[in-house]
Structures are given as C-alpha cells and as structure tokens.
Design brief:
- Helix 3 runs antiparallel to helix 4.
- The chain is globular and about 50 Å long.
- By secondary structure, it is mostly helical.
- The chain has one domain.
- The N and C termini lie far apart (44 Å).
- It is built from 6 helices and no strands.
- This is DUF3429 domain-containing protein.
- It holds the Pfam family DUF3429.
- Keywords: Membrane, Transmembrane, Transmembrane helix.
C-alpha cells in the first residue's frame, strides 16, 4: 500500500473505535437508558464479522500459504459474534465478544509472523483491538 492509503486505513480504523469508546462514556454518564449494551454489542458483532471477512478473503486468495484454516476460523468467530446477540445476559455477551476479538488478534499475530499481512496492519490491529477489548471489559465492569 502507498503511504496515503495507509494513513486513510489508520484514520478509518480509529474512527471505527468511536462507538466502543462512546458506549463506555455513555455508561459512565448514566445514560444506560440509551441501550448502550445493545448498541455496543451489535456494533461489536458487526466488527467481528468484518474482521472475519478479512481473514476469509486472505484464505481464498492465499490458501496454500496459510497454516491456519482461516475459512473455518472466520466462520466460527462470525457465528459466535452472532450467537452473543441471542443471549440475554450482557456479561456473557461481552465475554464472548472479548474472546472473539482476542482470537482474531492472535490469528493476525500468526499471519504477521508468516508475512501474510503487513507489519503496520498488525500493529494497527493490536492497538485498536486492545482499545476495543479494554472498552468491552469496562462495559462488563460497569454493568454491575
């Protein structure tokens, strides 16, 4: 990728974290009546599915070069994200999504080590996923 494309990718990724941060701030401000849990969990499931789609695409285009079967892992994680929305206990929903985000990050670490994704992309994923996981953990804590 060219430098300007990387800058755009980083900016858009940072913007993508805003709903998670906003959910935490809304919960702290006592605005739970705006359904912060539902909104953050729904957005989380969308993002998990989006990241799973990246892995699915990598598998389709470079299947022989991958040690991980990204086709299977991406589908399992997307389905787990969907399943998290069907449960009625927010803490369990958040924990499932946190597990999905950690799993996606571990897969990305392996992909970076294998040279399947560029180092800048893995660093970006590490930073933003860490922020998202912290936000989700805070939302679990704030539920009590």
């Amino acid at each position: 990728m060219q430098r300007d494309q990387i800058i755009w990718a980083k900016a858009l990724t940072l913007l993508g974290a805003i709903p998670f941060v906003a959910a935490v701030l809304a919960q702290i401000a006592g605005m739970a009546h705006y359904h912060t849990a539902y909104l953050s969990l729904t957005y989380g499931a969308i993002i998990i599915s989006f990241l799973s789609g990246i892995h699915w695409g990598l598998y389709i285009t470079h299947a022989k070069a991958k040690r991980i079967n990204l086709l299977v892992s991406s589908n399992i994680l997307a389905l787990l994200a969907w399943l998290s929305l069907l449960l009625l206990v927010p803490v369990t929903q958040y924990l499932i999504q946190i597990t999905c985000f950690i799993s996606l990050l571990l897969i990305d670490r392996q992909l970076a080590a294998d040279g399947a994704i560029e180092a800048w992309f893995y660093q970006l994923r590490l930073q933003i996923s860490s922020l998202v996981i912290i936000c989700l953990l805070l939302l679990v804590w704030l539920q009590h």
